[in-house]
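Need a sequence for this fold. Nothing fancy.
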């Protein structure tokens, strides 16, 4: 058997045909595929507006700017996420203020949130880590009580639900990401969703070099509109090629989500009796709510990052993709240098981060591949057990 990758996009002939049809059309930017894709994603999130952008990171940056976040402001977020969740705050000129996570959901801990709110707090940027929406309703309540906008970093959670509401519907705005390892992919790309007309229009303008919103449609009736720039803007547009792929993928989103639930369920059954592993926590009755992005286990407390790293190396030697997920953001070198963060600042995040292992996870993973991953993982852990004697 060939190498089992950590992730693998689900691309069909229909996806390829959607892309080639755009290439043949000659309309490669700001066209009907973008508009259709925006509508599909916004509807899935229960929002009025979708604004397609070049990545989840650029989407978060635009939302922060549209809310007036800038130098001197603070934005509360999690230290346990992909680094872009905090980088976009720096890109806006503000300071990320980290709050430790809940050890079960791995999301920002709402019981620790209010203590971090100050007069400088301009927004809360909360992440649905690994596609788990738990606590987002409580975080939204706290944000509302303090009249602080909530931004959902939903880049890992397209299609999930929480208490009857879709992921992406809790904040003033939410942002989805479509990198190749996500539930659906556009290659590179992201989507802002919101019910706020003004915020949507600002994001549409800023993604397109600050042009007037009407110019975004390509309407040539306004002479010179394409070279008019009303505000500071960026080249954050999504191409028609990417949007066409997104439209085709959205047609199969429910099938993708079910396939990922199936793979996660097989992992759970095979690994549930292995005492040295802590599996993802999915509460009974909410299995259909989780939008599985990755399948991340973690070693029990008796292990540390040294043993974890050896296990990952051993799995890779056996041609099984595995990785640590995530290193803590506050301990990344430039965050330490910027803010003086040190080990021990956010103990829950740090303890979990040192023991995580992301296992191969993709829609069409078959039972043999799953069994081989689980068997190899158990062998590598048993090796560490022997070394501890």
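Here you go.
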């Amino acid at each position: 058997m060939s190498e089992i990758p950590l992730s693998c996009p689900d691309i069909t002939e229909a996806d390829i045909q959607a892309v080639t049809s755009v290439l043949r059309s000659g309309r490669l930017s700001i066209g009907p595929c973008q508009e259709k894709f925006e509508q599909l994603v916004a509807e899935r999130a229960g929002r009025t507006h979708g604004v397609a952008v070049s990545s989840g990171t650029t989407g978060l940056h635009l939302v922060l700017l549209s809310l007036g976040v800038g130098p001197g402001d603070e934005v509360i977020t999690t230290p346990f996420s992909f680094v872009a969740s905090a980088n976009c705050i720096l890109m806006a000129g503000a300071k990320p203020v980290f709050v430790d996570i809940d050890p079960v959901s791995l999301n920002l801990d709402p019981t620790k949130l209010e203590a971090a709110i100050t007069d400088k707090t301009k927004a809360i940027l909360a992440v649905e880590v690994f596609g788990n929406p738990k606590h987002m309703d409580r975080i939204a309540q706290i944000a509302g009580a303090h009249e602080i906008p909530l931004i959902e970093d939903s880049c890992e959670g397209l299609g999930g639900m929480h208490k009857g509401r879709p992921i992406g519907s809790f904040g003033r705005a939410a942002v989805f990401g479509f990198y190749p390892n996500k539930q659906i992919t556009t290659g590179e790309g992201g989507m802002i969703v919101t019910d706020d007309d003004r915020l949507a229009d600002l994001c549409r303008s800023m993604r397109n070099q600050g042009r007037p919103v009407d110019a975004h449609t390509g309407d040539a009736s306004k002479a010179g509109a394409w070279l008019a720039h009303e505000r500071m803007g960026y080249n954050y547009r999504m191409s028609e090629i990417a949007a066409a792929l997104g439209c085709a993928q959205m047609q199969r989103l429910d099938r993708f989500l079910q396939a990922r639930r199936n793979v996660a369920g097989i992992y759970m059954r095979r690994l549930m009796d292995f005492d040295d592993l802590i599996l993802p926590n999915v509460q009974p009755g909410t299995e259909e709510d989780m939008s599985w992005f990755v399948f991340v286990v973690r070693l029990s407390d008796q292990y540390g990052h040294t043993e974890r790293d050896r296990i990952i190396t051993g799995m890779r030697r056996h041609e099984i993709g595995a990785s640590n997920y995530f290193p803590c953001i506050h301990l990344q070198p430039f965050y330490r240098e910027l803010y003086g963060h040190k080990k021990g600042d956010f103990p829950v995040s740090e303890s979990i981060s040192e023991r995580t292992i992301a296992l191969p996870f993709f829609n069409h993973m078959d039972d043999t591949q799953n069994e081989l991953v689980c068997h190899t993982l158990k062998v590598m852990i048993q090796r560490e057990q022997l070394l501890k004697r």
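For context: The first helix runs from residue 13 to 25.
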